Amino acid sequence: MLQVRKLERYKDDQGNEIVYDGEVREEKIDIRFKGANNKLVISPEADIKDLLVIFTGNNGQIDIDRTTKRRAGLRFELRCGHESTIRIGENVGCAGRTFISAVEGVSVTIGADVMFAKNIEVRGDDTHPIFDVRSGKRANPSQSIVVGEHVWIAKHAVVMGGATIGNGSVIGFRSIVTKAIPNNCVAVGAPAKVVKRNIAWERPEVVSRLPGEEFPRKGEKSEQYWNLTDDDGVQEKVVVRPQPKKRRLASYAPAPVKRLARKLRSS
C-alpha cells in the first residue's frame, strides 16, 4: 500500500495520481493507494478540512469540486474500489466526517450545495456479501447512488445503494434511504418515506433569530430550489452490478443429447 500524507500533486510508478494545484495541505490528510491507475482530482478551491481516501482496487476515480461559498468545509472518508467513481459537487458542506463508499464498479454522485450533518454514511455496498441459500446468488449487489443538488441530510442518516434523492429534499434524523426520493420533500424513517411534499429549505440557522422573525431574509432565498414535488420524475433504483447470466439447462446436457437436440431442431 502506498500512503500520501500531503495534499499536493502526486504520481507514482503504479499509475496512481493526485491532481491538485491548490495550497499544499498536511493536516488531516491521509490518501492510500492499494491498487493501480487510480486518480484523485481536487479543485484548488476546495475547502478541505479533513480527508481520508482509500483506493481499494484499480482504475478508481474521485472528483471533488470547488467551494466558492461559505460552508462548513469538506470532511470525508472516501472508499473507492475497482472501476468505481465518487463525484462531489461544488459548495458541499460537512458538519462532521461523512463516509462515502463506491466499490464493485458503481458510482456515487453528490450534487452541488448538499449539506451533510454529522455521522452520515453514503454507501453503495454492504461491505460483505449476502447470498440466497437456495440459488447461491448474491442477494446484495453493490448499486450506484445519486444525491441531487441542495439536499439536506440530517445527523446519523444513511443513504444505501440504489437510492436517489431529488433536488431540494430533506432527509430526517437517523433515516435510512433505500429507494428513490423525489425532489422538494421531507423523508424520514427506516426505511425513509416521504412525509411532506412541496417544501423548500434554506441554510441560515434559526438559533440566533428572534421569535416570530420573518423567513427567509432578503438575499437568503435560493429561488432555483423552490419547486413543487414531481413524483413522476422519480427514478427507480438500478442495480449497476449485473447478476451472472443464467445458463440454459441444455448447456449442462451430455454431448450425445446435445447432438440429438440439434438434429431434432433442424428436422
TrEMBL record:
Pfam family, one: Hexapep
Gene Ontology MF terms: acyltransferase activity
Keyword terms of this UniProt record: Acyltransferase, Repeat, Transferase
Protein's UniProt name: Acyltransferase
The organism of origin for this protein: Streptomyces arboris
